[in-house]
Design brief:
The protein is built from eight helices and six strands. The strands form three sheets. Strands 1-4 form a two-stranded parallel sheet. Strand 2 and strand 3 form a beta hairpin. 6% of the residues are buried. Keywords: Cell membrane, Lipoprotein, Membrane, Transmembrane, Transmembrane helix. It is a multi-pass membrane protein.
């Protein structure tokens, strides 16, 4: 019995009960692969949003398991995830009371969210301020060096009658031109990291059959907000270099 996404990766878009499927598997701690032909007895939809190492669960018959002559770990772990945290503790206690546990079974509450909402919000604010300040310093230094390098050019502009406001406008246009080039490139690199590199390294880090209940999703509002936030930071950082360039003496 195979999940449908595994069948699709094997090139089987229309599975049929009783069809033959060739699979390779490992037995115990052996690194050698054994290839056998199996009969598909069923298939199911796997609702796990993100799979580590791109692994799924394949169910086989008891007769096949007994034919392997290997000792298997019969321990099973069930993870339950509640929507919201308001009644999580009450629901856990209700499960503890109503489930008839047998000998050897245990009930343990392992919270997935260790930090409260206030701590997370504070950490996000501090990180945003740090990134904004770092970006401000970087952009300011780049424009400042550019102004100092071309100080004679701005002096000649003053000589031919260019006003301080016009020189400031030149600096602002330069900052806008840099933003139009740098912001799309930054968003593209961010998308590559978020949807390509991060999931890849998550799969590399988790070498077990555990599954991560985290879904990588796309939201255009995040990219639009990041672009607006970056543009505002660039314009604020260009104010002082523009003022310096406008105050250059002829």
């Amino acid at each position: 019995m195979l999940p449908t996404w595994v069948l699709e990766q094997m090139g089987i878009s229309d599975p049929q009960i009783g069809m033959e499927i060739v699979l390779s598997y490992q037995i115990g701690d052996s690194y050698d692969y054994v290839t056998d032909t199996f009969l598909l007895s069923g298939y199911y939809t796997d609702y796990i949003p993100m799979r580590t190492n791109n692994r799924g669960y394949v169910y086989v018959s008891s007769a096949f398991k007994d034919s392997l002559n290997v000792s298997l770990d019969n321990s099973v772990t069930a993870m339950i995830r509640f929507q919201g945290n308001d009644n999580a503790d009450k629901n856990c206690e209700r499960l503890r009371r109503e489930i008839d546990f047998t000998e050897g079974q245990t009930f343990e509450i392992v919270p997935l969210e260790q930090a409260n909402g206030g701590t997370i919000i504070l950490a996000v604010i501090i990180l945003a301020v740090f990134i904004s300040f770092s970006g401000y310093l970087l952009i300011y230094n780049i424009l400042y060096v550019s102004v100092v390098k071309d100080v004679q050019f701005y002096g000649r502009l003053k000589t031919i009658g260019t006003t301080q406001r016009q020189i400031k406008r030149i600096i602002y246009k330069q900052a806008i031109r840099i933003s139009c080039i740098g912001i799309p490139i930054g968003l593209l690199l961010g998308a590559v990291v978020s949807f390509g590199i991060v999931p890849y390294f998550l799969n590399m880090m988790y070498s077990t059959n555990s599954d991560v209940g985290t879904k990588v999703s796309f939201s255009p509002f995040i990219f639009i907000g990041a672009a607006i936030f970056t543009f505002i930071t660039v314009m604020i950082a260009s104010m002082k270099p523009a003022k310096i360039a406008g105050s250059v003496s002829p």
